[in-house]
From TrEMBL:
Residues 157-277 form the UspA domain. CDD domains: USP-like. This is Universal stress protein. Belongs to the universal stress protein A family. Coiled coil: none annotated. PANTHER family: STRESS RESPONSE PROTEIN NHAX, UNIVERSAL STRESS PROTEIN HP_0031.
Amino acid sequence: MSYQTIVVHVDQAPNLEARIALASALALREEAHLVGAAMTGMPRTMLAGRSYEGSGVFMADYLQRAKQRVQQDLARFDTLAERHGVSSREVRSSNDEEYSGLCLQARYADLVVLGQVRPSDSGEGNLLPDLPDYVVLNCGRPVLLVPSEGRFPVIGKRVLVAWNGSVEAAKAVTAALPLLRSAERVTLAILGGSVEVLGEEPGADIALYLARHGVRVEVLRRPEAVDPGAAIIAIGQEMECDLLVMGAYGHSRFREMMLGGATRTILATSPLPVLMAH
């Protein structure tokens, strides 16, 4: 298994350049095709609002600005990807709203690269506050979240896997195999956990599974934490990891995102790139 197609979300958020740099590095490493994707459709928050006199003119004006903005953003992606040496690349713009449009593009890829949202990221062209949450739960593909601060020229040398025996965690581990195989160090972190879920020797079975894929791991057990998300981040920083791998826990109810506490904490605050699968 390897990543053959990688989609990176393109917008005007401050961390876009770091996001494209990381996506480009992965594309070169995996010899993958890189797609820069941007949407020009009306945001669902506007579509849900009541119409009023002049709203049609406002919407037309917004869509025109969105098309111009996306053209500039995708041109920037193309320039940066070329600068990083990515020859197999393309740009895609679709007249969809950001949520469904990005999920649609993600389904034709092996990995989707997103940016982490900061509270200050507001205004046209920036990341929508709950976009990463929605895409993680609904795109059907693993998501690599790039932190809002810092640059990450290399990831996957020192990897922390948050393991709790769940379906989501198992999917995340499988999705991360292309990175885990070449890692210098892989640590499996287990916070508490029961014998019923993790077995008589927690971590042993998943370590054996990974060993068959050529991945050697160290199992690290810690007591159950009140705030598991913060505890996982702390372990990652303590061990100087450059990538966190974990399952995204949550479900959709009445079309609203319902994320688990640890997932939400890590999506919002992780200083490390995070590979998630749902």
